[in-house]
Amino acid sequence: MKSKINSFYHKALSYFGPQHWWPADSPFEVIVGAILTQNTNWSNVERAINNLKASKLLYPRSLYNLTDRKLAKFIRPTGYFNIKAKRLKNFLKFLIRRYRGSIKRMSQARFNGLRKDLLGVNGIGPETADSILLYALNKPVFVVDAYTKRILLRHKLINETAGYEEIQNLFRHSLKRDVKLFNEYHALLVRIGKEFCFKNNPKCLRCPLSE
DNA sequence: TGCCAGGCCGGGT
DNA sequence: ACCCGGCATGGC
């Protein structure tokens, strides 16, 4: 089990090479992307972020000062734009009030408290919180997503009932606690999921992990 | 045409 | 503690 988790990583890395995640120009952009990509194709998120950049709005206070309706207009391509506008502003309010709008100050908070606080923001669940912690703040926490679960399920390392924590613990107990490793591994799982492990297929298709 | 995409919340059991 | 409907655009 542990050795499978480790060998999957080496197989995936040698097959695909490093993924250079998260694709963004700043930690703040990572966070915005993490919220916007909830159940949404990444290419749609890029459009939304480009809309914000084109209007020079991709800053905490600039976004926070927009009305929900205006913000929703910019992020329209991501779908769920009304609810995501609210969710973004919920996070921005948290960032501004608690850390005076500074990602750097937020990143200096103690890990356990910060994760709990992020989960307390309406619209931030476990995957989004952990994506923020790992990819924006460089904290060593493993991100679990739909691809992660599906891939492990197809390879019978978990069963259908496995929840977020259970899957996360599987990685935590199998891997060296290392930001770079967690970053790369999750990115590789997404890559494999997109190219080999489709939802409607019962099995992964010529999955490089099976070699 | 219908299904899918890097979830999460709120109300009901 | 789970289960489920709702949220919505763009690509194939």
Explained architecture:
The protein has 211 residues and is an all-alpha fold. It contains 12 helices and no strands. It has helices at 2-16, 27-36, 42-54, 60-64, 68-74, 81-99, 103-107, 111-120, 126-136, 146-154, 164-174, 179-196. Helix 1 packs across helix 11, helix 2 (27-36) crosses helix 3 and helix 2 runs antiparallel to helix 9 (126-136). It binds a DNA duplex (13 and 12 nucleotides) through residues 33-35, 37-45, 47, 76-84, 87, 122-128, 131, 143, 145-148, 186-187, 189-190, 193-194, 198-200.
Protein traits:
single chain; 211 residues; 12 helices; DNA-binding
Q: What is the topological layout?
A:
Layout: H1 2-16, H2 27-36, H3 42-54, H4 60-64, H5 68-74, H6 81-99, H7 103-107, H8 111-120, H9 126-136, H10 146-154, H11 164-174, H12 179-196
Helix pairs in contact: 1-11, 1-12, 2-3, 2-9, 5-6, 8-9, 10-12
The chain binds a DNA duplex (13 and 12 nucleotides) through helix 2, helix 3, helix 6, helix 9 and helix 10.
> What summary fits the major beta sheet?
none
Strand coverage percent: under 5%
Radius of gyration: 18 Å
Q: What is the arithmetic mean of pLDDT?
A: 97
Contiguous helical run count: 12
Helix proportion: 55-70%
Shape: globular
N-end to C-end Cα span: 17 Å
Strand elements, count? 0
In N-to-C order, the SSE pattern is HHHHHHHHHHHH
- The SS-based structural class is mainly alpha
Low-confidence stretches: none
Quick structural overview:
By secondary structure, this protein is mostly helical.
